[in-house]
Amino acid sequence: FPRKDLVSIEHQEITDIEFLKEAMNKALVSAMITVGQKCLSKPVEDMVPEIQKMLSEHLCGCWKQCPFCGAICTNTIPNHDGDHSVPFHRPNAVNGIQYHKSQEFSLELCTSSVASDRSFILNNDDTTKFPFKNYRQAGVKYATWSITPDTSTQPYWKWFVSHFRSNLEKKYQLKFIGKGEIPDAWAKITKEDVLDDLEKQ
Ligand SMILES: [Zn+2]
Ligand SMILES: [Zn+2]
Protein backbone atom coordinates (compact mmCIF):
# COMPACT_ATOMS: atom_id res chain seq x y z
CA PHE A 1 0.00 0.00 0.00
CA PRO A 2 1.25 3.50 -0.76
CA ARG A 3 1.91 5.79 2.19
CA LYS A 4 -1.28 7.84 1.58
CA ASP A 5 -3.45 4.80 2.43
CA LEU A 6 -1.81 4.39 5.83
CA VAL A 7 -1.62 8.06 6.68
CA SER A 8 -4.22 7.57 9.43
CA ILE A 9 -1.71 5.82 11.68
CA GLU A 10 1.08 8.34 11.22
CA HIS A 11 0.09 10.38 14.22
CA GLN A 12 -0.24 7.55 16.70
CA GLU A 13 2.57 7.24 19.22
CA ILE A 14 4.22 3.94 18.39
CA THR A 15 6.32 2.64 21.25
CA ASP A 16 6.98 -0.97 20.39
CA ILE A 17 7.08 -3.18 17.34
CA GLU A 18 4.10 -5.34 18.40
CA PHE A 19 1.99 -2.22 18.62
CA LEU A 20 3.24 -1.05 15.25
CA LYS A 21 2.13 -4.38 13.77
CA GLU A 22 -1.28 -4.04 15.37
CA ALA A 23 -1.76 -0.47 14.14
CA MET A 24 -0.64 -1.47 10.62
CA ASN A 25 -3.05 -4.40 10.62
CA LYS A 26 -6.00 -2.24 11.65
CA ALA A 27 -5.22 0.35 8.99
CA LEU A 28 -4.75 -2.38 6.37
CA VAL A 29 -8.10 -3.99 7.16
CA SER A 30 -9.97 -0.73 6.71
CA ALA A 31 -8.01 0.08 3.52
CA MET A 32 -8.91 -3.36 2.18
CA ILE A 33 -12.61 -2.91 3.00
CA THR A 34 -12.57 0.38 1.07
CA VAL A 35 -10.96 -1.35 -1.93
CA GLY A 36 -13.48 -4.20 -1.64
CA GLN A 37 -16.42 -1.80 -1.66
CA LYS A 38 -15.00 0.03 -4.65
CA CYS A 39 -14.75 -3.28 -6.51
CA LEU A 40 -18.31 -4.33 -5.66
CA SER A 41 -19.76 -1.11 -7.04
CA LYS A 42 -18.34 -1.79 -10.50
CA PRO A 43 -19.05 -4.55 -13.06
CA VAL A 44 -16.42 -7.33 -13.09
CA GLU A 45 -15.42 -6.56 -16.70
CA ASP A 46 -14.38 -3.07 -15.60
CA MET A 47 -12.54 -4.28 -12.52
CA VAL A 48 -10.31 -6.92 -14.13
CA PRO A 49 -8.17 -4.54 -16.21
CA GLU A 50 -7.96 -2.13 -13.28
CA ILE A 51 -6.77 -4.89 -10.91
CA GLN A 52 -4.29 -6.13 -13.50
CA LYS A 53 -2.89 -2.64 -13.85
CA MET A 54 -2.66 -2.23 -10.07
CA LEU A 55 -0.91 -5.57 -9.62
CA SER A 56 1.55 -5.02 -12.42
CA GLU A 57 2.45 -1.59 -11.06
CA HIS A 58 3.07 -3.02 -7.60
CA LEU A 59 4.69 -6.33 -8.42
CA CYS A 60 6.37 -6.07 -11.78
CA GLY A 61 9.28 -3.91 -10.77
CA CYS A 62 12.84 -4.97 -10.23
CA TRP A 63 13.21 -7.03 -7.05
CA LYS A 64 16.99 -6.96 -6.74
CA GLN A 65 18.22 -6.27 -3.22
CA CYS A 66 21.11 -4.04 -2.24
CA PRO A 67 24.01 -6.43 -1.46
CA PHE A 68 24.72 -4.58 1.79
CA CYS A 69 21.40 -3.60 3.37
CA GLY A 70 18.81 -5.61 1.45
CA ALA A 71 16.73 -2.59 0.35
CA ILE A 72 14.86 -3.39 -2.87
CA CYS A 73 15.69 -1.60 -6.14
CA THR A 74 12.95 0.91 -6.90
CA ASN A 75 13.13 0.63 -10.69
CA THR A 76 9.63 -0.27 -11.93
CA ILE A 77 10.87 -2.27 -14.95
CA PRO A 78 11.92 -5.92 -14.49
CA ASN A 79 15.35 -6.70 -16.04
CA HIS A 80 15.86 -2.99 -16.62
CA ASP A 81 18.92 -1.50 -18.29
CA GLY A 82 21.44 0.35 -16.19
CA ASP A 83 22.27 0.02 -12.53
CA HIS A 84 20.02 -0.93 -9.66
CA SER A 85 19.45 1.81 -7.16
CA VAL A 86 17.27 2.82 -4.24
CA PRO A 87 16.74 6.29 -2.78
CA PHE A 88 16.74 5.04 0.85
CA HIS A 89 19.22 2.47 2.07
CA ARG A 90 18.62 0.90 5.49
CA PRO A 91 21.05 1.50 8.34
CA ASN A 92 23.19 -1.53 9.14
CA ALA A 93 21.71 -1.73 12.65
CA VAL A 94 18.29 -2.59 11.24
CA ASN A 95 19.81 -5.71 9.68
CA GLY A 96 21.78 -6.61 12.82
CA ILE A 97 25.17 -5.80 11.36
CA GLN A 98 27.94 -5.25 13.87
CA TYR A 99 31.47 -3.92 13.67
CA HIS A 100 33.73 -6.82 12.84
CA LYS A 101 34.50 -9.04 15.84
CA SER A 102 32.59 -6.83 18.30
CA GLN A 103 29.21 -6.73 20.00
CA GLU A 104 28.72 -3.14 18.86
CA PHE A 105 26.02 -2.22 16.38
CA SER A 106 27.12 -0.40 13.25
CA LEU A 107 25.23 2.84 12.69
CA GLU A 108 26.48 3.21 9.13
CA LEU A 109 24.41 3.24 5.97
CA CYS A 110 25.53 1.84 2.62
CA THR A 111 25.74 5.41 1.35
CA SER A 112 28.05 6.49 4.20
CA SER A 113 30.12 3.28 3.99
CA VAL A 114 30.93 3.76 0.30
CA ALA A 115 32.01 7.32 1.11
CA SER A 116 34.41 6.05 3.80
CA ASP A 117 37.84 4.44 3.81
CA ARG A 118 36.57 1.34 5.62
CA SER A 119 36.39 -2.20 4.27
CA PHE A 120 33.82 -4.94 4.38
CA ILE A 121 34.19 -8.68 4.83
CA LEU A 122 33.41 -10.54 1.65
CA ASN A 123 31.28 -13.72 1.84
CA ASN A 124 31.72 -14.06 5.61
CA ASP A 125 35.20 -15.28 4.87
CA ASP A 126 37.30 -13.68 7.58
CA THR A 127 40.29 -13.18 5.36
CA THR A 128 38.86 -11.34 2.36
CA LYS A 129 38.40 -7.66 3.08
CA PHE A 130 37.28 -5.30 0.39
CA PRO A 131 37.39 -1.48 0.43
CA PHE A 132 33.84 -0.03 0.37
CA LYS A 133 35.01 2.63 -2.07
CA ASN A 134 35.63 -0.03 -4.74
CA TYR A 135 32.61 -2.16 -3.88
CA ARG A 136 31.62 -2.57 -7.51
CA GLN A 137 34.71 -4.69 -8.11
CA ALA A 138 33.75 -7.13 -5.35
CA GLY A 139 31.64 -9.38 -7.57
CA VAL A 140 28.60 -9.59 -9.85
CA LYS A 141 26.00 -8.76 -7.21
CA TYR A 142 27.92 -5.60 -6.26
CA ALA A 143 28.85 -4.48 -9.79
CA THR A 144 25.29 -3.78 -10.90
CA TRP A 145 24.42 -1.50 -7.98
CA SER A 146 24.81 2.24 -8.02
CA ILE A 147 25.20 3.45 -4.43
CA THR A 148 25.76 7.19 -4.23
CA PRO A 149 28.29 8.13 -1.54
CA ASP A 150 26.56 10.35 1.03
CA THR A 151 27.62 10.93 4.59
CA SER A 152 24.23 12.09 5.87
CA THR A 153 21.56 9.89 7.47
CA GLN A 154 17.88 10.63 7.01
CA PRO A 155 16.03 11.82 10.13
CA TYR A 156 13.63 8.90 9.65
CA TRP A 157 16.33 6.30 10.28
CA LYS A 158 17.89 8.24 13.13
CA TRP A 159 14.50 8.39 14.81
CA PHE A 160 13.79 4.72 14.08
CA VAL A 161 17.09 3.45 15.49
CA SER A 162 16.95 5.55 18.65
CA HIS A 163 13.24 4.88 19.19
CA PHE A 164 13.51 1.11 18.79
CA ARG A 165 17.00 0.71 20.25
CA SER A 166 15.97 -1.76 22.95
CA ASN A 167 14.02 -3.89 20.45
CA LEU A 168 17.01 -3.97 18.13
CA GLU A 169 19.41 -4.79 21.00
CA LYS A 170 17.20 -7.62 22.14
CA LYS A 171 16.61 -9.00 18.66
CA TYR A 172 20.27 -9.10 17.60
CA GLN A 173 21.93 -9.44 21.03
CA LEU A 174 24.16 -6.49 20.21
CA LYS A 175 24.67 -3.15 21.92
CA PHE A 176 24.60 0.49 20.85
CA ILE A 177 27.89 1.19 22.59
CA GLY A 178 31.41 2.29 21.60
CA LYS A 179 31.51 3.06 17.90
CA GLY A 180 27.83 2.14 17.75
CA GLU A 181 26.73 4.66 20.37
CA ILE A 182 23.61 6.54 19.28
CA PRO A 183 24.37 10.30 19.23
CA ASP A 184 22.27 12.35 21.69
CA ALA A 185 21.00 14.46 18.81
CA TRP A 186 19.28 11.41 17.33
CA ALA A 187 17.16 10.91 20.44
CA LYS A 188 15.99 14.51 20.20
CA ILE A 189 14.43 14.00 16.77
CA THR A 190 10.66 13.99 17.08
CA LYS A 191 8.14 12.21 14.95
CA GLU A 192 6.99 15.62 13.67
CA ASP A 193 10.54 16.36 12.42
CA VAL A 194 10.53 13.04 10.59
CA LEU A 195 7.12 13.61 9.00
CA ASP A 196 8.12 17.16 7.93
CA ASP A 197 11.26 15.78 6.32
CA LEU A 198 9.32 13.03 4.52
CA GLU A 199 6.84 15.61 3.19
CA LYS A 200 9.77 17.38 1.53
CA GLN A 201 10.88 14.30 -0.43
ZN1 LIG B 1 21.98 -0.61 0.78
ZN1 LIG C 1 16.89 -2.90 -10.33
Task: Explain what the structure shows.
- The chain is mainly α.
- The chain folds into two domains: 60 residues, no CATH class; 140 residues, no CATH class.
- It is built from eight helices and two strands, in the order H-H-H-E-E-H-H-H-H-H.
- A two-stranded antiparallel sheet has the order 1-2.
- A hairpin with a 7-residue loop joins strand 1 and strand 2.
- The longest helix is centred in the first third of the chain and has 24 residues.
- It starts with 16 loop residues before the first helix and ends with a helix.
- The relative contact order is 0.11.
- The model has no long low-confidence stretch (mean pLDDT 83).
- The structure holds zinc ion (ZN) (2 copies).
- The site of one zinc ion (ZN) has 6 residues, from loops.
